[in-house]
Amino acid sequence: MQDLSGLLYKIRHGLDTQVSLSRLRRHRTLAEAVAGRTVLITGASSGIGRSAAIALGAAGATVLLVARRADELDSAVAEIEARGGRAFGYPCDLNDFDALDAMTAKALADHGRVDILVNNAGRSIRRRLDESYDRFHDFERTMRLNYFAAVRLILAFAPAMRASGDGQIINILSLANLYGGPGYAAYVASKAALDSLATNLQAETHTENLRFTSIYLPLVRTDMITANPVYQQATANALTPEEGGRIICDAIIDRPRRLAPVMGRVAAFVDATLPERADSIRNARFTRGM
């Protein structure tokens, strides 16, 4: 039975409600959405990336898994194949742009094109402003993986998507991009850059059936939170990797422009209309968490 606190958390943030309503309206299954399609997922060796890859492989997609850890990629590929799916591992450190470019070239040579790109790999850093004065490199390395690596992937795979008249680019963002994330400025800023990029590229390609989908995820119980004591206090209410993976699959079926929890959308509205009040709320939350 689902933990009550976790259920209340998801009801409060509107995740179950939003996804359930979209399921009532949809006219196709995941298998129909990915039939004959190639999906590339970064950060696919563990967490929500791996969970999504397994579900997509089981539904019939050709899944390309990208991550640094080759052994874990091999394990994920083997699990997908054991379930009758088709999967290929591409070990790559996305921080190394030469390696990234070589990986994208090989993926295109092997499969012709990528129909759906899921920019899931990311780095989170928790560090206050007064702890950051001599740590500019924190901002550099966060932008390098969370933004610039994703941009290179988009630039590599978008031409074939546009030529085919179809495609989807899914960016895994954070609820903090709507709700605020004081103490996580480097991380939130890098994700905001990716979100802004998608907004502008979607406007350019609006009539081309190329869909940019932004998913604003709340906390998910993955390896990224294990070293963070603040995150660990909230793990009981966090989404599981399987739940996060299902949200990615729902986004592939429904192709929404944005998929966001209710509280995040409310917070974004308050921020746009009453920014001083929103800043006060964020400051109070930040002060309590220090």
UniProtKB/TrEMBL annotation:
Keywords: Oxidoreductase. GO terms for cellular component: membrane. Gene3D superfamilies: NAD(P)-binding Rossmann-like Domain. Residues 37-223 form the Ketoreductase domain. The keyword Oxidoreductase applies. SMART domains: PKS_KR. GO terms for molecular function: oxidoreductase activity. It comes from the Bacteria. InterPro entries: KR_dom, NAD(P)-bd_dom_sf, Sc_DH/Rdtase_CS, SDR_fam. PANTHER family: DEHYDROGENASE/REDUCTASE SDR FAMILY MEMBER 7B, DEHYDROGENASE_REDUCTASE SDR FAMILY MEMBER 7B. Belongs to the short-chain dehydrogenases/reductases (SDR) family. This is SDR family NAD(P)-dependent oxidoreductase.
